[in-house]
Amino acid sequence: MREGAPTTRWTADHVARIDAASASSAPVIPVQRRIIDTLDLWDYWPVQRTDGHPAEIMGGTLFIALSAPVLPDPDARHAVARLRLLHRVGTDWRDLGPALPDGLSPGSRQWSGSAIISPDGAMITLYYTAAGFRDEAEISFVQRLFQTRAALSVEHGTIIVSGWTKPTEFLRPDDVHYTSEMTGGGAIGSIKAFRDPAFFHDPANGADYILFAGSLARSRSPWNGAIGIARRTAGNDWQILPPLVDADGLNNELERPHVIVRDGLYYLFWSTQAKVFAPSGPAGPTGLYGMVADTLFGPWRPLNGSGLVFGNPPAAPCQAYSWLVLPDLCVQSFVDLAGLTQPPCHVAQARAHFGGTPAPELRIMLDGERAWLA
């Protein structure tokens, strides 16, 4: 299909096909040791090559994660989130400190994105979400997409990421396909999206794309989540394109969308939560969802007929979130509210159960339009 082909809709009919008795559920997460005792960590991703595989750096993988001090209310972390560098070798993690220097980012906090290493391994390009505005008196919900580059080196056995360029805003909502009004209801799960930029290089045509979580412009429904896309032009700018997938009337947030190519097919994945489905229709579990297509621009077909790849287990419906599928089908996420059979009823309970650290990695299997946990 050509660029700008009709958007695929994820519908209530698809979600209604989820059979709770037979749907794949992740195993219950045992108690996890936190990487950093004084910080909550979530929404992490590896520094990747353009083909999507994690880059090997000093015998391991360099990660970028969202981080925040351990606050009484774990939901408050979103208002102070900052990118942090981590290096993992095997099962050992090393904290490398904040990714961006103080005062460099134009937002009041930093949200998710992706990072690509240059072919020679000397540079990292970071695409990320700047939420709010620097020094704003009141926290706002504006989300802007920025890119910046830094030099990568190893000196005396230490990874050095230095010389970040001034962040540039590379993509803006057009109010034709994607709304620029982010406030929504103002509560977590109700704000609108223009965030989570994920780099994708299409091997079919050699073009570079950015996928992102968006919200439809001109929608009549408060539940108007979409998976947006933009293409890098010959002039090194980014051209915004119609959504790949939308969930108009069904779901408010299709978060951290990303694509891998496997066995000649394109697999599109995203995360969403049970609480952001429209209350008037069917709801799926908090989990990893996806579709498959023959080309990047679809038409897309929901995996397993419904879109659900796997959910959190019924015994722990909020235990993990923000899944990232890598080209080898390894799936990474973070420990959210573990050990609860239902969402927490008060802040102290949320704090006691919030994991704030990487979750055990999972692996999926793919066979055409079927997907399941290995």
UniProtKB/TrEMBL annotation:
Alphabetized, the UniProt keywords read:
Hydrolase
Recorded GO molecular functions are: hydrolase activity
Q: Please report the name of this protein according to its UniProt entry.
A: Glycoside hydrolase family 68 protein
Could you name the domain of life of the organism this protein comes from?
A: Bacteria
Q: Which family does it belong to?
A: Belongs to the glycosyl hydrolase 68 family.
Species of origin reads: Sphingobium cyanobacteriorum
Which Pfam family is an annotated match for this chain, by its short name?
Glyco_hydro_68
